[in-house]
Amino acid sequence: MINQIRIDNFKSLVDFELRLTSFTCLVGLNGAGKSTLLQAMDFISQQMRGELDEWLALRQWDKRDIGSRLTPKQNIDFYVQVEIHDHGLVEWSASFNRHSLRCTSEEVFHDGVRLLKVEDAECWLVNGSDAGLRTRKMDIVFEYQGSILSQLKPKQLGDVLQALREQVVNIRSLDLLSPEFLRQRTRESAGHLGLGGQKLSAYLHEQGSEARQHLLNQLKHVYPQLASIETRSLRSGWKHLDISEQFAGKFLKTPARHTNDGLLRLMAVLSQLSSDEHFLLFDEIENGINPELVEFLVDALVESEHQVMVTTHSPVILNFLEDDVAKKGVIYLYKNAYGATQAIHLFSIPSLAEKLSIMGPGEAFIDTQLTELESEIKTLSQQEGMDAAATER
């Protein structure tokens, strides 16, 4: 699980820090930085995949677009703390150069031992089998993008660095999910849906009939008329998706290009919750979903074995969260006077904490003027600063 991130100089994220839980829900006004945070998580994951130029092209961005306009800095610095099964806490920090699209410096620590250091075109590496015993140094004479960990072979990395790479690679963003993309035919999925869900038909085809049947069984809880989810490979290699429904004993087969938006979005989300990805990112998760189906969706997200981060503008989403989940996982994003995105647990704000004692999370949210929260947050921050200074004295 990703426990904590810090990132500096990525769009509106300047000296930004956030502790994460298994389910994180981002709320805030338009332009506060919710989508930017999802993009930043995807950016961090891409470091372990390499090929940053392809990632930028896919998002239709230039390398200049990802840096912050709020600072003169060129590099994007980030830190990630990961809790890995059987290994414990691992800390990875790096500085990414926007011109070379490469992490020009990196460090990884585990149990106080530095397993990796990259600096000045040199790499110091402690192999997992030799941890604490021998460090190997090598000159970096090959071209790559992102983290050097994206290029090294498993036998060079050892168990901990391999596990770190796998954990970060398996952050998967669907922040551009849209019906237009979901209806597209694709030849292959490479094991994921794509940022917009454009590989849905190929992904479901490659997952096999057992996975499609599992998805069908889940969807029948809210779409009892569903009869089958079928895929087939066309002569040209494109994968075709059909959804069959049963009405009064008759079967109606509908291709994906004519299927309703809400069903396609649920298919995409639920198929990812059954995947091997570790951390899933969804933007404005409620879009296209009938209010009657929101509770089903929220329950699936919160109860998932995956780590999940979503953004929402809907108090309905929050209303289906238990109070303890809301206290830990609902994060309010806002911009300070300099335009940098800031984060605070929504229900740690005194006025919201008081409302939560008598209202549901969604009711407390809708009963609050978000534009008026900043002054309360500022007062809270000043008080915390005074308390910290008093403690130091």
UniProtKB/TrEMBL annotation:
Annotated Pfam families: AAA_15, AAA_21
Signal sequence segment: none
Organism phylogeny: Bacteria, Pseudomonadati, Pseudomonadota, Gammaproteobacteria, Oceanospirillales
Organism: Halomonas kalidii
Record-annotated Endonuclease GajA/Old nuclease/RecF-like AAA domain positions: 1-48
Domain ATPase AAA-type core, chain residue ranges per copy: 254-319
Protein name: AAA family ATPase
Record-linked SUPFAM superfamilies: P-loop containing nucleoside triphosphate hydrolases
Domain of life: Bacteria
